[in-house]
Write a structure and sequence with these properties.
2 helices; Defensin A-like; 79 residues; three-stranded antiparallel β-sheet; alpha+beta
Length: 79
């Protein structure tokens, strides 16, 4: 995990407009994009098909509740 991502408390959201034929296609494309970025725990949290495609927000979870948070582990090493 990159040093910058270690500072993320919970998740990274990506929002965009994808040109596609349906909401289902847009959801699939967004999940592929997030997985292509190297994330494994991904989801679509908003999708609205309109006009030429879908306005969509995908979420890549860096930490889920009760995970081992990197920033807490680093704080323990500082003392």
């Amino acid at each position: 995990m990159s040093q910058s991502l270690e500072k993320v408390m919970d998740a990274v959201d990506v929002e965009t407009l994808l040109v596609c034929d349906s909401e289902a296609e847009g959801r699939s494309l967004m999940l592929d994009i997030l997985k292509g970025f190297g994330f494994t725990d991904v989801d679509v949290v908003f999708a609205q098909f309109e006009g030429p495609g879908v306005r969509i927000r995908g979420r890549a979870y860096v930490h889920r509740p009760a995970d081992k948070y990197h920033w807490l582990q680093q704080a323990g090493k500082a003392g």
